Amino acid sequence: MISKLIEKIEKTEAPIVVGLDPKLDFIPRYIQEKAFEEYGETLEGAAAAIIDFNRKIVDAVADLVPAVKPQIAMYEQYGVPGLIAFERTVSYCQEKGLLVIGDVKRGDIGSTSASYALAHLGSVQVGSRTYTPFHEDFATVNPYLGSDGVKPFIDVCRKEDKGIFVLVKTSNPSSGEFQDREIDGRPLYEHVGDKVREWGEEAMDGDYSDVGAVVGATYPEMGRVLREVMPKSYILVPGYGAQGGKGEDLAPFFNRDGLGAIVNSSRGIIAAYRQETYASYGEENFAEASRAAVLAMKEDIRNALAKR
């Protein structure tokens, strides 16, 4: 699967993934009112507004980027209708030719992880029929439970040609409480990086592995170290834009060939119309503002990589 992502990155010349992390606050009032008129101020109404909002964003940016990353918690908060909106968003994005990284951060004991892996990347048997419940192309995985929690995902990846991104050094401010703790003279995130490299050797797809890593843009020096620790792992880089990451911080995450990383922006794109830079687009043209934000991000990354 990673080879398909690389092919799309090279085609679009945009190592960018758009985070589809909708909140009702981000959704223009006219979209909410339309959904509430049909479904009432209900969970179903919220889900309908999310689907409409996502589709308009996707329509505006699908030709510019290789992938999207819906964060499942933003959908789960609206219950079963929200999960339906998540699946419908995944389906719509794939219909538009985009790869989907399910930001689900799953990881548990072996049998439970196996079920998570089947739900998001694999298939389940119901009598004589087979179903693919959420059918993302990639999923994010929490490695805290060790190999027992990760290998079921790798097994499904190898069987179904899918991929995962393992949390190594996350972008949030308190990530260091655990991830930076030293063990045998090295921070914990480096030990996790070692395991990602080891796991990745079981799932190579060309020059890179289907087992990638999550490393936050807010920690570029750590990204530089981890790029060396995991030379064959693609790095999913959150934290650009709203969390403070800038184009100039991104170069360490990439290999010299310009590959090896894909950068996520969520609020900075889907809620771009609320920023002063794009305010002139107005609420009605929020999707066009998102497109402009993608183009600006693409240029920012290009300039940063050119200066290496």
Radius of gyration: 19 Å
Could you give a short account of the major beta sheet? 8 strands, parallel, barrel
In the CATH hierarchy, the architecture is: Alpha-Beta Barrel
Low-pLDDT runs: none
Strand arrangement across the biggest beta sheet = 1-2-3-6-7-11-12-13
The counted number of beta strands is 13
Helix count? Answer: 12
Any idea how many domains? 1
Task: Give an account of the 3D structure.
This protein is of the alpha/beta class and 308 residues long. It is globular, with a radius of gyration of 19 Å. The longest helix is centred in the last third of the chain and has 21 residues, at 286-306. Strand 8 and strand 9 (186-187) form a beta hairpin. The strands form 3 sheets. An 8-stranded parallel barrel has the order 1-2-3-6-7-11-12-13, surrounded by 7 helices. Strands 4-5 form a two-stranded antiparallel sheet. A two-stranded antiparallel ribbon has the order 8-9. It is built from 12 helices and 13 strands. The chain has a single domain, classed as Aldolase class I (TIM Barrel, Alpha-Beta Barrel).
